[in-house]
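Please fill in the sequence for the structure shown.

STRUCTURE ENCODING:
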């Protein structure tokens, strides 16, 4: 079974959102919620990552996949939950602003990273399986081997008290290239004609 392992390779390809900004040079990325007061606004932090040169053929069968993050700090707050989506594009663009991160089209498929336990600094943590997300993208007619895959990890709101902080913090590329987020994919070749437009499929099949 072919395996593809990728890692963030540029400061422009990861970041996190906070209030009105997209942060990309903070050493770390954060997902979770931050409460200013018991009845005040719930500030949600989302992580965005983009992986380049994803050498999966169009229509490949994705058997297993996950993201890996390395903890930037020890986060021993309450167990949290996040939801991972893919960016529903043939070739994901680098994140440039919070507006773009929050308004890009998302895949129908998603993965809940439920009951995320406390993190310990410099330990790696694998997400739950995201194969359905990647499958949806590589099944797009316009997907081509070598394109980029983008993912958004969205925080799930929860209840907090004054100045409560419920987050997980991971290294970004600017803080440590060797500890930046990783993507692991196990895949097999799809059936002949899978995911192709009818004309191309018929040509390959000799119809």
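FILLED IN BY: designer on duty
SEQUENCE:
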């Amino acid at each position: 079974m072919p395996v593809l392992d990728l890692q963030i390779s540029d400061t422009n390809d990861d970041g996190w959102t906070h209030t009105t900004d997209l942060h990309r040079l903070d050493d770390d990325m954060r997902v979770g919620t931050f409460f200013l007061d018991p009845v005040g606004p719930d500030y949600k932090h989302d992580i965005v990552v983009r992986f380049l040169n994803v050498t999966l053929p169009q229509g490949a069968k994705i058997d297993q996949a996950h993201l890996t993050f390395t903890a930037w700090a020890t986060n021993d707050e309450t167990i949290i939950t996040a939801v991972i989506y893919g960016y529903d594009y043939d070739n994901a663009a680098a994140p440039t602003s919070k507006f773009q991160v929050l308004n890009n089209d998302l895949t129908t498929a998603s993965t809940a990273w439920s009951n995320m336990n406390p993190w310990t600094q410099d330990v790696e943590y694998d997400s739950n399986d995201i194969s359905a997300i990647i499958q949806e993208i590589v099944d797009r007619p316009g997907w081509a081997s070598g394109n980029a895959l983008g993912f958004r990890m969205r925080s799930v709101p929860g209840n907090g008290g004054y100045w409560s902080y419920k987050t997980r913090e991971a290294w970004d590329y600017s803080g440590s290239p060797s500890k930046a987020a990783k993507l692991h994919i196990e895949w097999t070749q799809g059936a002949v004609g899978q995911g192709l437009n009818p004309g191309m499929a018929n040509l390959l099949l000799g119809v």
